Amino acid sequence: MATNTKGRSNSPGKNARGLTRLLTIIGWIAFVVGVVTIILNIQPFNDNNAGLMMGIGCVVGSVFIYFIGKSIGSMQVRNEEGKESINDD
């Protein structure tokens, strides 16, 4: 039986690591965009300033994006550890 060894492996662990890396990068980009938007729109400092509110939203959203990415990576590591312990028995 022939197997295809060319190209990258599509194992769930590699896919999760790639997703974790992607969400980490997106989270940092959202954070930087939020900080820059806040700095550029600091005046007037009130809730009618849409640019300021969007910047704050990007900063808060970046924390959630980063946390979700790290959670996916952590769950994948635990899943792989669980499979290894089952195979060792």
Walk me through this protein's architecture.
- This protein is mostly helical and about 90 residues long.
- It has a domain at about 25-80.
- The protein contains 2 helices and no strands.
- It has helices at about 10-40, 50-89.
- Keywords: Membrane, Transmembrane, Transmembrane helix.
Q: What are the defining features of this structure?
A:
89 residues; mainly alpha; 2 helices; rod-shaped
SS element count, helices = 2
Determine the mean pLDDT: 83
Low-confidence stretches: none
Tell me what portion of residues adopts beta-strand conformation: under 5%
Q: Please summarize the sheet with the most strands.
A: none
Secondary structure elements and pairings:
Elements: H1 12-40, H2 50-88
Helix pairs in contact: 1-2
Summarize, please.
By secondary structure, the chain is mainly alpha-helical. The chain contains 2 helices and no strands.
